[in-house]
Amino acid sequence: MPDSPHMMTRRDTLKVTAAAAVAASVELNLGSTSDAAAASMAFQDSLSTSLKINGVDHTFAHDPRVSLLDALREMAHLFGTKKGCDHGQCGACTVHVDGRRVVSCLTPLAQLEEREVTTIEGVAGADGALHPLQQAFIDHDALQCGYCTPGQIMAGIACIKEGHATSPAEIREFMSGNLCRCGAYVGIVAAIEDAREKMGA
Amino acid sequence: MHEFTYLRVRDAGSAVAAATTAETVRYLAGGTTLYDLMKLSVETPTKVVDINRLGLNQIEVGEREVVFGALARMSDVADHELLAARYPAVSESLWKAASQQLRNMASLGGNLLQRTRCAYFRGGEPYACNKRAPGSGCAALQGQNRSHALFGGSRDCIATYPGDFAISLLAFDAIVDVVGPDGQRSIPISQLHLEPGDTPQKEHSLRDGELITRIRIPATAAGLASTYHKVRDRESYAFALVSAAAALQIKDDVVTEVRLGLGGVATKPWRAKEAETFLLGKRLSEATAREAGDLAFAEAKVTDQNKFKKELGARVVADALMIAKGRV
Fold it and tell me: Out of A31, A144, B129, B163, which could bridge A182 as a Cys pair, Cβ 3.0 to 4.6 Å?
């Protein structure tokens, strides 16, 4: 840690520790000190955005600041998509927009007018049958605590469809945006290889 | 996050018109830098102009030049087969950056203007940062500066330019086309980014309201024998400790053209001109590659925490040159 006068406050130190768990960069994430100020601001529903989520039409009146992640959880009440770092570093909030994987925490809701979003709640079959990659995660013990799992599965499905899952090395490279603190990576790679065959990709 | 008004535009003219105002305006493309820094209250625009529906996403690998629309996404450009075959350094500089999710979002124009990862810049108050709060000082000079610049720093700022794509573009002398309130102009990539000097808050030469529309690379046969070699603390999804974009032409066993860009070590994309001059007309061997690497880092200004990058950097340059040679 830096010497005074650059000492971090205890609050920032806690934030750094928390952020380090999911840090994409090797550099420190000192966190923001503006949360309290932001919370006290009036919330203005000045925008209206219409989009499809898992095939269902939604229209949200919202403040321009709202992220897709917060809209999914707080407005659509789809809690499968998880908030990890909220800064695009951990991949826990991964969803598909028009079939492409993105991090929903860095996607302003306002950008999604007329777009189609798929979340973990939308990947199982109409009859409730698990998606092949969901089943493969169970079969290969590809999780422990499970917090990163919805993001891993959304990223994994996209990874297979993109054609970036042709070898364990390529899977590791193209899944590197999804961190797993439990260290279930070996199972995750095995699950993606397994599902790749079942998805016919 | 500070409050702002959001405006969606459908063409470049409307974007520029919307940005021509006394307000603090930012163009929103992928949002991976801007929206992140707005969450940290480091970026505080009062007006955000969403340019995602402007088109500008072409990818053309032509005989005379390569042309990218500024809103082409990093992942699409990285996966472009002809680009990867003819200019592997450019493709590699894209897929070795960020994660696939972020590459699906991030635009090329936004990537060029990606802001530093200096923790004191991102951390906000109470940390001193001349780039974020001009005149407040630089906490990195005596603080955590393992990842800070060996080249181009000043007494006011030693923050590293974090991007990868711009390093390969610099090696290929790319050109950035912009449109603004005063019309269109073209900027050599070497003149897009600025050294901090005593105005570290000013990072690029774009004027108020100017919008990047295209990025062009003049065609060169050196593209074929090129690489973007990036060394990180972990194997994937991290910023460069040191990176080198190297491109070569070799005829009759001697180097007839060489281009060397350095990343992760400077306040802006850095060109290793002395090393290039040294190699011209020479036979490229492990020994001369290493000599070039040493030359590239001869003028490095190090801190206690980043001095390891002088040796590491020389090796990265040497390795990049030998990888490129393998593709001649």
Answer: A144
